[in-house]
Amino acid sequence: MTKLGTSDLDVSRLCLGGNVFGWTADEEASFAVLDAYVAAGGNFVDTADVYSAWGDAHVGGESETVIGRWLKARGNRDAVIVATKVGMLEVGGLDNLRADTIATAAENSLRRLGVDHIDLYYAHQDDPKTPQEETLAAFDALVKAGKVRYVAASNYTAARLTSALEVSEREGFAEYVALQQHYNLVERSYEGELSTAVADAGLSSAPYWSLAKGFLTGKYRPGVEVESVRAAGASKYLDDRGLRVLAALDEVAAAHGTSVASVALAWLAAQPTVAAPIASARTADQLDDLLPALELELKADEIARLTAASEVQIS
After folding, report:
1. Which residue numbers in the chain have pLDDT < 50?
2. What separation in angstroms does the CA of 161 have from each of 97, 101, 133, 195, 278?
3. Residues with a known catalytic role
4. Quick one: which of 128, 133, 119, 129 has its CA closest to 178?
5. 15: left (phi > 0), else alpha (psi -120 to 50), else beta?
6. E strands, the chain, where?
7. ∠ CA 184-185-190 to the nearest 5 degrees?
8. What Rg, from alpha-carbon coordinates, does the chain have?
9. Of 1, 24, 112, 293, which has the fewest CB atoms closer than 10 Å, so is most exposed?
10. Directed axis angle between helix 193-200 and helix 158-171, to 10°?
């Protein structure tokens, strides 16, 4: 377990992404994944009100509803750290960070999850049209009311994250304790200004798309067709650099007798500021490839080998 940023939340080294629950994983499959994750020692589940508004006949909230039913069925609310988000749900006009949106969306999420508080509540994306003072005051009100334990940011630039922290400090509002952003072995733009801002503030990150839409599971290879809604996004990494990364992952995975996916997640977990990479699974079998990341520790030379393989080569 590790502390998440400036909070007192002890989170497992792998965060289970809930974006597939109620979408490509039905309730039965979702329950099986959640059960296996917790049984293996995981305790950190990530979702959002917008999951999965992109599916046929879906309007958002499906993932929260599934997780809520599972929590009730298992009676394990206190053993699970639940993170959800606000600010991207177009249905109902909840795709902003205005005070009324945050208040309404929080109540909706609490109802769907069937809980009396949310452990970690993210601003899903920045909203430049709404003053940060208004957004942060609304989050602070939720914390003071006991409906949210901690707040965090997602998809913020370094400047906007720093600005939000300054506003909270000045006004005495609850401060963002962590950042969620796109980061993995083949997408490393987080490294630099943004990671420095996170480190300087004493925060930590929980990266999403930690497996590059499935590419870093190792199932995407030259000449191999993969049936997945994410196949097009994952296949774009299948270039010379991607092949170098896969070769390095294969080598390290073989040395540890483990899966390529768990090695990719362990590399990410070893990066400065990263507390818990987020990864999702549609089935318990898929989850099996991720679970070793809860404990897998890579050697310094293995981390260096993977880092070097993923560097962009300039000719």
Report:
1. none
2. 14, 20, 13, 11, 20
3. 51
4. 119
5. beta
6. 2-3, 10-11, 15-17, 44-46, 81-86, 118-123, 148-154, 176-180, 204-205, 278-279
7. 50
8. 19
9. 1
10. 20
